[in-house]
Amino acid sequence: MIARLSFILAIAFALSLLPEMGVGLALQARRHSNRAIHSSRSAHKRKRCEGVECWLEEFGFSKAIDVNSDHSHKHGNSHQGQDPYQYSQEDQYGGPDGPSNNDKEIYLQMHNKARAEHGAPPLEWDDRLAAAAQSWADGCVFEHSTGQLGDFGENLSAGGGNFGAEAAVQLWLDEIADHQSYGGDDGRLDHLTQVLWKGSKRVGCASRSGCTGIFGNQPTTLHVCEYDPPGNVIGQASQNVNL
Fold first, then answer.
1. Is residue 104 in some structural domain?
2. Which of 44, 89, 140, 166 has a CA between 20 and 30 Å from the CA of residue 23?
3. Rounded CA separation 218/198 (Å)
4. pTM assigned to the model
5. Contact present, 237 and 213 (Cβ < 8 Å)
6. Is residue 130 assigned to a domain?
7. How far apart are CA 64 and CA 27, in angstroms?
8. pLDDT tens digits along 170-219
9. Alpha-carbon distance 129 to 204, whole Å?
10. Is residue 10 part of a domain?
11. Which contacts of 41-48 are long-range, i.e. CB under 8 A and separated by 24 or more positions?
12. Contact at 8 Å (CB) between 168 and 25?
């Protein structure tokens, strides 16, 4: 009993230090077409937590969730070469508050460097996507927008300490290790596959610092990237991602 109590206290103390160390969490939405609705719901259910994983969730560390949308993309079929570049909420986003020019360059360069290494064409920066990302980041909520901003792909990451644009994107790129451990092109859809998704052509990112409620009361920086057209369509990974 004493040993178990000591273990719990040690875990709690370690978790309290994570924001100070700049450790980040990531959140990413998965999408599917109507053809894959039934299989995707069963394929991406979260596994039951066991052992230390349950203790971590009890202490509020686990923030990653799976979000699946139940509609096909309304902007056309990428296989037909269509790219209707339009926004259903054009008037909602004015000029982005914005990332600094330095952060903008970091977001874009890190995405395109990774894409070049995996045979994907470069993304273009889109100020309207950045404005949408800023509007969501300003809410300081570590949850997906679930279509409220438009039919975009979306990556989120959050961290305490000095958690800048480079650290945020690197958190997604580090997921390559998960794919390698399962033998490469394993069909997994995550932050990395959205970053590398060939069908996505534009990106806009933003952040908000000083958020609370993600790591308890610790000040946290939330990063949001929006992608158009959206990636991570279940059943289309093989033609859009080279790992």
1. yes
2. 44
3. 37
4. 0.67
5. no
6. yes
7. 5
8. 999 999 999 887 666 667 899 999 999 999 999 999 999 999 999 999 99
9. 4
10. no
11. 41/68, 43/234, 44/68, 44/189
12. no
Q: For residue 215, give Cα distances in angstroms to 49, 108, 236.
A: 20, 27, 35
* CA–CA separation, 4 and 25 (whole Å): 27
The pair of three-digit structure tokens given for residue 103, joined into one six-digit string: 């952060």
Average pLDDT over the chain reads: 71
- Residue 106: which CATH number? 3.40.33.10
Name the domain count of the chain: 1
Question: Between the ranges 5-14, 47-56, 128-137, where is the mean pLDDT highest?
Answer: 128-137
The reply to whether 8 falls in a domain is no
What is the pLDDT at residue 1? 53
Domain membership of residue 32 as a residue range: 24-46+64-70+95-240
| pLDDT at residue 43 is higher than 90 | no
pLDDT in tens, 57-115: 333 322 322 333 332 222 222 222 334 343 333 334 444 468 999 999 999 999 999 99
Number of other CB atoms surrounding residue 105 within 10 Å? 13
Give the number of other Cβ atoms within 10 Å of residue 78's Cβ: 21
CA torsion, ordered 97, 102, 103, 105, to nearest 10 deg: 110
